[in-house]
Amino acid sequence: MTAIHEYIDHTLLKAEATKEQIEQLCKEASEHHFATVCVNPFYVPICVDLLKDTGVKVCTVVGFPLGANKLSIKRLEAEQAIEDGAEEIDYVLNISAVKNKDFLFVKEEMEALARLKEERPDVVVKCIFEVCYLTPAEIEELSILAKEVGLDFIKTSTGFGSGGATLEAVQLMVENSGEHVRVKASGGIRTRDQFQKYKELGVSRVGTSNGIAIISGTQGSINY
Predict the structure, then answer these.
(1) Residues acting as catalytic residues
(2) Nearest to 47 by CA among 81, 8, 7
(3) Pairwise CA distance, residues 132 & 155, whole Å
């Protein structure tokens, strides 16, 4: 059985995050044996150095938080992050393409990011949907595309949209993504009770700045 701490991507993505805060994030992640720290690309090299030999991986974000970058730029950004030592990539899909019903482009983007694994099979690629802007039908369609492409994870939210994870969205993602694509819930998950509800739905990872509160059963803050 997977322990609670193994579900947690210990997250700090605030624009104003300082080096000292990132160092504290890594210290906490190492002490509590979280799955990863999730940070902006600028801080990847620092985290890689701080977490060397701890078993905690470094996750970073691409096309964040709007997903509106050109595909070539997202791919380049991801490649640079991997070169810097990131082992997990959380990229934001092109939300406008979804709203334009251009699912052919969305699939092309998924495939381009999934191909990162051709040279680095150990890298984990997660696609952020930003479910607060999507209809149930769009969430279903995106989950099916992720299954067809063979992404490692699909993820609910950036934490910067108008809303975060919902039980309804996660259920749709789990039901439509197949057995090989895992689901990461993120955005607004602050308590053990909230975590447990998502875990029961079948998520494999939770992105949160409240990991310590979740594992200790205390009330978290209102952050990501």
Answers:
(1) 90, 155, 184
(2) 81
(3) 12
